[in-house]
UniProtKB/TrEMBL annotation:
<dbReference type="InterPro" id="IPR020904">
    <property type="entry name" value="Sc_DH/Rdtase_CS"/>
</dbReference>
<comment type="similarity">
    <text>Belongs to the short-chain dehydrogenases/reductases (SDR) family.</text>
</comment>
<keyword id="KW-0560">Oxidoreductase</keyword>
<protein>
    <submittedName>
        <fullName>SDR family oxidoreductase</fullName>
    </submittedName>
</protein>
<dbReference type="GO" id="GO:0016491">
    <property type="term" value="F:oxidoreductase activity"/>
</dbReference>
<dbReference type="Pfam" id="PF00106">
    <property type="entry name" value="adh_short"/>
</dbReference>
<dbReference type="InterPro" id="IPR036291">
    <property type="entry name" value="NAD(P)-bd_dom_sf"/>
</dbReference>
<dbReference type="InterPro" id="IPR051911">
    <property type="entry name" value="SDR_oxidoreductase"/>
</dbReference>
<dbReference type="InterPro" id="IPR002347">
    <property type="entry name" value="SDR_fam"/>
</dbReference>
Length: 284
């Protein structure tokens, strides 16, 4: 039986990924900061008799990561698949978002991934086997306000994943980056308007997310892709997921840097019209 360790499983993509792996016959360590809040998750595990073990782990903490992973390995043997899913989002203009939020995002979305990866790499390298799947975002390809801080963490995750893939392939360790578009998660639904902001971008992006979520994409789509990557023989590095993921990425690629800046700096009417014409979404 293969063993998977998945971070950030309290809700959304992480929870659905843990269930997908459990239903596929994996022994799963589903980690989260506060297992006491996982009563519904525990009920599903029980009702379906899944081999899923909910474990406490805070990816922001060296000690917490070491304790959780050491315990899993000592008691159950090698971890075959690591899914680095835990992530947080804070949004706001560069000027207005507190520096503490920038630090918190990087601590979880970037350094959290490094902690878990570094904890398992020696074992995977020794066994010459393993799969590491990092959940990034289309925001790892494009950066616009008010998601600058979030995008910075995902750009960093993309970069470190690409470097890691080249380091560990000779040891038969596969690295993959999953890049969801707008998915119907709490994080996406929490994108809101900052009425006090001196910049218009908060209202614009909230409108874009709201319009997209009128036809929601379920987190199970991302979970199924993560399982598919783990089960396949593909060495493909990047995997956009969701109906808008590849269009968003190609949209950015279609513009020069200056055109992208100009579009984000446009007045409201021009910005909303461009979104309507490009994606058929009324973000007003």
């Amino acid at each position: 039986m293969k063993i998977a360790l998945i971070t950030g499983t309290s809700k959304g993509i992480g929870l659905e990924t843990a269930l997908a792996f459990g239903r596929a016959g994996y022994k799963v360590f589903a980690t989260m900061r506060n297992p006491a809040m996982a009563s519904d998750f525990k009920q599903i595990i029980k009702s379906e008799s899944l081999d899923i073990h909910i474990s406490e782990m805070d990816v922001d903490s060296d000690a917490s990561v070491k304790k959780c992973i050491d315990t899993a390995v000592q008691n159950h043997g090698q971890i075959d698949v690591l899914v680095n899913n835990a992530g947080i989002e804070r949004h706001g203009s560069i000027e207005e978002l507190p520096l503490e939020d920038f630090k918190a995002i990087m601590e979880t979305n970037y350094f959290g991934v490094l902690r878990c990866t570094k904890a398992l790499l020696p074992q995977m390298r020794k066994n010459r086997s393993g799969c590491i799947i990092n959940v990034a975002s289309v925001s790892g390809h494009k950066s616009n306000s008010p998601l600058g801080a979030y995008a910075a963490s995902k750009f960093a995750l993309e970069a470190i994943s690409e470097a890691l893939a080249g380091e560990v392939k000779p040891f038969n360790i596969k690295v993959a980056i999953v890049e969801p578009g707008i998915i119907n998660t709490q994080m996406a639904n929490d994108i809101s308007v900052d009425e006090k902001s001196i910049y218009p971008h908060s209202k614009r992006l909230a409108g874009l997310f709201s319009a997209s979520l009128q036809n929601p994409t379920a987190p199970t789509l991302v979970a199924d892709k993560i399982l598919e990557i783990a089960e396949s023989n593909t060495w493909k590095l990047r995997h956009p997921v969701g109906p808008d993921a590849e269009p968003f990425i190609q949209w950015r690629k279609s513009m020069t840097d200056e055109e992208w800046v100009d579009w984000n700096a446009a007045n409201d009417d021009d910005w909303y019209e461009a979104v309507q014409n490009t994606f058929g979404l009324d973000a007003r």
